[in-house]
Write a structure and sequence with these properties.
homotetramer; alpha/beta; Aldehyde Dehydrogenase, Chain A, domain 1; 2 domains; 7-stranded mixed sheet; 6-stranded mixed sheet; 23 strands; 23% strand; oxidoreductase (chains A, B, C, D); EC 1.2.1.27 (chains A, B, C, D); MeMal-semiAld_DH (chains A, B, C, D); methylmalonate-semialdehyde dehydrogenase (CoA acylating) (chains A, B, C, D)
Chain lengths: 498, 498, 498, 498
Amino acid sequence: MNTVGHLINGEIITEGTRSQNVFNPATGDATKQVDLASKATVEQAIAAAQAAYPAWRNTPAIKRARIMFKFKELLEKHADQICQMIGEEHGKIGHDAAGELQRGIENVEYACGAPELLKGEHSKNVGPSIDSWSEFQPLGVVAGITPFNFPAMVPLWMYPMALVCGNCFILKPSERDPSSTLFIAQLLREAGLPDGVMNVVNGDKEAVDTLLHDKRIQAVSFVGSTPIAEYIYSTATANGKRCQALGGAKNHAIVMPDADMDNAVNQLLGAAFGSSGERCMALSVAVAVGDVAADALIAKMTAAMKKLKVGAHSDNSNDFGPVITRQHQEKVVGYINSAEEQGARVVVDGRNPEVQGYANGFFVGGTLIDNVTPEMVSYQEEIFGPVLQVVRVETMQQAMDLIDGHEYGNGTCIFTRDGEAARYFSDNIQVGMVGINVPLPVPVAYHSFGGWKRSLFGDLHAYGPDAVRFYTKRKTVTQRWPSAGVREGAEFSMPTMK
Amino acid sequence: MNTVGHLINGEIITEGTRSQNVFNPATGDATKQVDLASKATVEQAIAAAQAAYPAWRNTPAIKRARIMFKFKELLEKHADQICQMIGEEHGKIGHDAAGELQRGIENVEYACGAPELLKGEHSKNVGPSIDSWSEFQPLGVVAGITPFNFPAMVPLWMYPMALVCGNCFILKPSERDPSSTLFIAQLLREAGLPDGVMNVVNGDKEAVDTLLHDKRIQAVSFVGSTPIAEYIYSTATANGKRCQALGGAKNHAIVMPDADMDNAVNQLLGAAFGSSGERCMALSVAVAVGDVAADALIAKMTAAMKKLKVGAHSDNSNDFGPVITRQHQEKVVGYINSAEEQGARVVVDGRNPEVQGYANGFFVGGTLIDNVTPEMVSYQEEIFGPVLQVVRVETMQQAMDLIDGHEYGNGTCIFTRDGEAARYFSDNIQVGMVGINVPLPVPVAYHSFGGWKRSLFGDLHAYGPDAVRFYTKRKTVTQRWPSAGVREGAEFSMPTMK
Amino acid sequence: MNTVGHLINGEIITEGTRSQNVFNPATGDATKQVDLASKATVEQAIAAAQAAYPAWRNTPAIKRARIMFKFKELLEKHADQICQMIGEEHGKIGHDAAGELQRGIENVEYACGAPELLKGEHSKNVGPSIDSWSEFQPLGVVAGITPFNFPAMVPLWMYPMALVCGNCFILKPSERDPSSTLFIAQLLREAGLPDGVMNVVNGDKEAVDTLLHDKRIQAVSFVGSTPIAEYIYSTATANGKRCQALGGAKNHAIVMPDADMDNAVNQLLGAAFGSSGERCMALSVAVAVGDVAADALIAKMTAAMKKLKVGAHSDNSNDFGPVITRQHQEKVVGYINSAEEQGARVVVDGRNPEVQGYANGFFVGGTLIDNVTPEMVSYQEEIFGPVLQVVRVETMQQAMDLIDGHEYGNGTCIFTRDGEAARYFSDNIQVGMVGINVPLPVPVAYHSFGGWKRSLFGDLHAYGPDAVRFYTKRKTVTQRWPSAGVREGAEFSMPTMK
Amino acid sequence: MNTVGHLINGEIITEGTRSQNVFNPATGDATKQVDLASKATVEQAIAAAQAAYPAWRNTPAIKRARIMFKFKELLEKHADQICQMIGEEHGKIGHDAAGELQRGIENVEYACGAPELLKGEHSKNVGPSIDSWSEFQPLGVVAGITPFNFPAMVPLWMYPMALVCGNCFILKPSERDPSSTLFIAQLLREAGLPDGVMNVVNGDKEAVDTLLHDKRIQAVSFVGSTPIAEYIYSTATANGKRCQALGGAKNHAIVMPDADMDNAVNQLLGAAFGSSGERCMALSVAVAVGDVAADALIAKMTAAMKKLKVGAHSDNSNDFGPVITRQHQEKVVGYINSAEEQGARVVVDGRNPEVQGYANGFFVGGTLIDNVTPEMVSYQEEIFGPVLQVVRVETMQQAMDLIDGHEYGNGTCIFTRDGEAARYFSDNIQVGMVGINVPLPVPVAYHSFGGWKRSLFGDLHAYGPDAVRFYTKRKTVTQRWPSAGVREGAEFSMPTMK
């Protein structure tokens, strides 16, 4: 069985001390091993990054950006290979992996604009003959810790921008599906990145804690669950680092009575079940306003879900694949059970899906649950599976109160055709990313991604304009030139040092 | 003796349970008492702010800004009165208090531009007929904790911007010189600010800890010493708040051999001794490159210091006044003693200044120390007194290494007439605010203030553009309007709900 | 009879050679004379401006801005007096004059943000150790030529921004209502503006042509009718000046069947008849989609118009006042006649309004005309009177084609509650300022004002961010400092000139 | 002999009516013909562009940008071929053509950032529940007219940005060296650009005048000589188009006594003689301050010029090649003659260069002329040949007066090591592009290119941020949603149209 190693200073390194299985979630088989980095290995990566930093920092931004132009070419050239790797270890279907990769590439495209993004502000005459300007300088060595559900995209949210800003990077990706992440990072060398500027260490808590405590790490970006995000944030900040830690979510869609219901159902299908619901922007709760809307939603949804096809990544006609592990499969089923036990009605039941030829895969079928209430565990916690729960309310205000009452504030959406309802909703809802008839309101790469409340710890959102600020520190220069006589000519006859 | 109270919901309130003396540092006399808020009182302020928030949040930015236009007028109208209050409790001379207030007003002026500063980014067609934009929404109730050395200016770095962004504010100013701060805050009501939007609580650790732990406080801005800054930052962030905490400093000026030495000496005088050196941007170390430069610097400095005049705030011909407390006076003298003991040469000795008529004042005279080395305690720690230490080095690179080796990275300066030296210095030095022939490179109000290393904890600097980002959270809206038939006219004949 | 003179170099000057009557349009009486400047007088103003320029250019932006802070105070203090002057010469009612003045003051408020608005872009390391930045420098002496309909507001669109950018200004206001304009300009001196920086010349074509041909004038801003705008633009540009020339308008509102009709009628009342329709943003055509909407609009409008009150400026209960001149009154009535003759139906007829006590005033009452068609003269030309014409169409697309087919493209509006219709309209309509349920979509002062097609000649719109670019020229500096040995220390022993 | 045709709607078209020779300037031979488009052919191109516009306008900016990503790849892939074409028709040496192409590609890179660059400004609550935002919409069909001296670069200044902003483009390149321009434009199709979006017409005044008068052309960008620029600008603006027209130059370098003279000479060599001085940013006048500096400059320059190598483009060891035509060769020699006749001293004489094997080529050798004075014709006019003239002055102020007294204000430079001299110079000199120790201060692609005075007609500079504004028009939308009852729920029971 192959072992996935670490990328340090341009070389693939395997320690061989501790490792862990990597599974194909469609078959349930362990197919690879991943090496788990010790503290020493992580420190070796940090040292490599530190060594590469001075030259990289002084490389003009346009030259750093040009490596990203080339990187984009290489990602597009190797797209099929990357999607295959993602499918084998994560389980997501080819078209979904391609979508993930494309979203990742969009962050590379944005990073190509570094010279524009890094412009400082220049003020002439802040006082008589005094000028002042700001520079956005790199931080040094920074780290990223990323989750299993987007092994290509989430790392690409982070390091392309970190690198073009002049930083060196240590990535600690998920140990569940490490291959595509490592492969992509290796392409950077071919794109012209000097060795040591980008490093990948696979590992577990030991690797994470090393990054959190090492003084040479200036900043940490994290995406994962809220309890870990909170740990990462408080530990990193207590160690004097800047940190942005993105956590869990419970994304609600309000379905208004005036919504185009066919459109809403069509949108909800992909948003709730795509990638088996293992997305922090998955739409997992539909709040129907009024029973007329609720009944229509349930009826149309039920009909539409009949056509959902679950299976292995290699068949592109599948809609979604297995969840990531056996344990996670059991957890998702447990939430469905608990909802049922607490009085909800399982309208479409995905608990025992038959997937021809994949009897041992970690599959959960698309599940629709009606009459969910806020007291239920399945409502309060993030399921991270292909489960759409419907809550019924009487008014739009109740729907909004429900959303605002939840712990998380990542994404949300309203289906309506009414301008006023949409504006009131987007203005007042306590959620960071808002869709109007857009169920997965993931901001495009030139905007920034971030939830509110306990979905994000930190001041600045991920990628886009906020990432430029996160990966740089402001330096303000104030300049005044006292006359040295050179201009006036007095010194020309006999130059002396004063 | 008068007691200084709290401003809560537009009323001045005094608890009367715990209080502390406020001194006139020029006479050494206790002249007032300041009430120390209990947890309950602070919570009352928070509740008032929370209650005022919804209406204030929905007030158009231009209307919030207009209150700042009026506030500026009132600050200018009451300037003399405010400077008097500052002088009586802090001790700084009238001209210096006027300078502080002016710097504060400049932040009010900047806040008047709120409508411009709060613009979000609008993207048409992020996909086919899909638009996306960002909004910078207020956080809610936020807090500021400010130091004794700028009772007018540092609070004005914070709340004008916080308020125009739509937040409500709780200010916990220094308990050593609370009167001017409170007076200024009261002017906001006359300027048209609704009650409860701005509140002031005087207090000590109890008040601070209440602010740090209360869930309703969304953000904390702090200026003070590094150990407290670190405590504030780690506590606030562990409690899920955003935080920016500005700490101590040790600001070096490099004096190059080609510098205009008369200009340098003239600039250093004010930068080292102004406000008795009780400024986080005080220039406390001069690094002379080469003995020729060092000797010239010492000679010219010694001569210039003969004219320094120390005394009470009320005499505007004085250059600077007393330090803030008896204990602080002793601490400053202790540093001078230690430098002497560790081998430095006290060239001009301010340890026992005679100040006619103010025998009990907390005075320290201007002090110049030569041959200081990095091992000395007086070099490693922040003195916060009217003491300029000179370190001699051979090369500019040694001077820069010295600066980069220090714990702090707040401000720094180079005196030279050479473009290349200045550019190399400003590019490479690990300090957040850099002066080129400007010894106090405090950024103007439309740039941002912040040190590096252990001089600032957090991502975003104080005031200026960074403050807009600190006091707002990004919301990204993605919008698509499915056709509802209205435009096409199909629905005109028979409107029905789909 | 008093004569209104010119403001040149801080002094009021009257030539006494040529002059013209100024009327009170409510009474029809000539009440003042206005001096008409000769070429020599205009050149005197230009010379004064040119002389004041070098010092003003070098005044820090923050100091220029502070004059605007004070100017705002003075405008607010003298508001009643200014509105009185406007009413006496222009005829608009007190509340309307107050609105105009307020809109003008908002441009002064925006100009207070000059230090932020004038920031250039700074790029570190555009090449190895090469930096580059942009500066936005003033143009020199610039001119504004403004119309009678907003004697306070339109000049304030121009010169506050031009001045804070560092330019000196020559204003040639309308000779029909010159008093408020001149009074306002005089307040600048009290606000602290140095003499000569701002100058006002009253006059006619001779003054205009002098400004257009004088080499010292760097830029011309104009607001007026399209034929004159075109002349100004082609003449100014042929003389090497930059120019922005705003012309006429024919602003349509589409009334959709799903609109809130009471709201639409309420909005249209003010937008069509306010200031007697003498606004370039007046809503003069309502395009009703479908006869149901059209009939409802006509019915509700007819009822609402019964309450319209026309009269003299001094009675604040009036809705609008007289038009500007006898000739203009006749012209407006002529358009109504022609519409009737060409087959339209005059539903509410304002041709012979009775205004008690003002028998000789230049009044036209609110007029509503139905069944207007694109062939009619009254549809094709700008009426500039209190006349609302209704065109009936079958579909929204027809309504949009009508708008896009018209010569002008200043403002437009749609009344609907449908998000999709609003988005399609605002995206595709060939008009520069678009309202969604906002009938007078005049951009706020921190955005920019400008129409499309033959409503504006030039690249940059009026006021707001575009004005900053219009009143400054870009300078790009690229800087590299070759080592001079100063930093490395080689030169310290023996400095020589190379 | 091959004939170079036009690119219209994706096809190469040749009229065959009128044509003109294309020469190889190194041999003097006519090698090709270029078809000269008639009015009808130009109108055909405009019609094609107009037809392609609606779909292109609605293509999301990110998709338009991705064509530029691919275009960059193709330009890099075909770089050698392009440089060969440039060399054969323009005569510039391979390394110089490569530099030109690279500068062109940098504009393509900048255009890749379109989604960022096209962001509008979004303001929430400009009034109660009223929002406003700006959109930067494309103009429609726009045109570029470009000169012979940069057949690859100058067109790439224009159309990449125009296209990503959503416009369609007609390019009228120089008829002297049309092949590389046409080849490059054809690559766009391979990059994915729809037919008709980009069109190239070769031609002369007939083509130009057609573009200037056709109502469908919304904007014209021009680079060429000042008399033509002035004609283009006044004609285009009189026809209601926006226009930016870049004209001639006379770029001075001030050589200060404290300059690093070896560095200055080294820089001046390339800046004065590179591309035979046929650059609008060529450094053609050195102003030496003081005779010591002047004598040193002349001595070092004379020595350095001995190594200059002139010859054909195909030998990459040559420094520069021939000028563009026989007539231009004679004109350049005429300027040298006139300088000599008017009393200047020809120090290095390039009038009769021997170029082995290229007896009939249009060569002029590098020429250095001392003691030039402002009265000489060779000083007043643009030579556009490999001629560096030295003017001697006593003071820096005299040098600056000289520069400011010249008709042109394109580029300028100062050689000094003194910060104060550099700052004073860059602040005050009336020139649009300023170098500090950078003799060819061509702004990088993410800044903008433009001279002052008679070097540029128009408000906005070429490429960079200004180009975004030039190629788009601002639309400001103001939006208010009156309640329709949908949100409040009133309408849920019985939806009806109001």
